[in-house]
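Our preliminary data section would be incomplete without showing what the modeling component actually yields. Below, a chain of 156 amino acids is followed by its predicted structure, encoded as tokens that our downstream tools consume directly.
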Amino acid sequence: MSAGVGPRVPKDDFMRALGLDSSDARHEGIYRAMRDEAIATYNLLNADRSNLVEEKQNDLTIRPPYFWHHISRERQQWAIIKTWQNAAPGTVQRQMFDRGATQGEHSPNWVTLWLLYSVFRSRDIRNNRNRRNGDTSSSGSGGSNSSGESRVRSLV
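Predicted structure:
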């Protein structure tokens, strides 16, 4: 297996780093299960302004969905670990998350970091790809609607 990847690499590179093939339906199912774990944490981060960096917490023009860089570093680290720990032991997604444990730039887990960053990008209604495709739902792939998403749509 190759070394971990950073949060901005394409999905195919991410999956390849985990030994997965995005053209394999079984592997795509594993990816969706991992992504669902990240979506649950994403929803938690977007539900509470206290997750924002201090200078954004009282800025009422900042509304969900938040940008990843508006989430405080401490809460980003919490989210990376929370996503990892929420996957039940023995599940395939937990096994994949366990492979992501790392020190350094993408610590503590490059797998859950990539997934969280990806969810933030794909669910951001300001994302150019979503606007080009006329998609303002921010539903992203592999996820289902949640009360947080409905709330976001009502703000648009």
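Confidence is low (pLDDT under 50) at residues 135-156. Residues 121 and 127 are 7 Å apart (CA to CA). Preliminary results of this kind motivate Aim 1 of the renewal.
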